[in-house]
Amino acid sequence: MNCSEFESRMHAHFRATDGALIRRALVGRAPDVHALAASGDEHAGMLGHLAGCDDCVCSLLQYVEIREVVDYRDYPCFHLAYYAHSPTDKCIESSDGDFCIRIQGSAEESICIGFCPWCGAEFPTSAADSIRVDELGLDEWRNHQPDR
Fold first, then answer.
1. What is the mean pLDDT of residues 45-63?
2. Which of 4, 14, 25, 88 could form a disulfide bond with 35, CB atoms 3.0-4.6 angstroms apart?
3. Intra-chain end-to-end CA distance of the chain, in Å
């Protein structure tokens, strides 16, 4: 199992698991993923992956934080759902299917993105449809050589 597969299956296997139990099992001096009893082979495989992947431990803890607020399956990837809705780590703005990274913590100042900065998942942007590089006249700028 890889991280993408783990994240895509979190909802199916952990949506009803007590958040405090998950935090106790994963946070502290001696994390023990096996305190989260496996309910089948796939769930056991997820716990096995979780035992060796700090990134997925973080993702599961983040999932517990937002699972009552948003269904991450409605987003291109888990990270965009989390960082667009986290009360503590919000840094992504989402509007009309576009995702933008906040600059200096301001929703008004942001940079629209066409991929996830955490996992690289690509997604369409409205800007990609409306702006073409060749229409901006950048070829002339690129070919300009400074006088020496």
1. 92
2. 25
3. 56
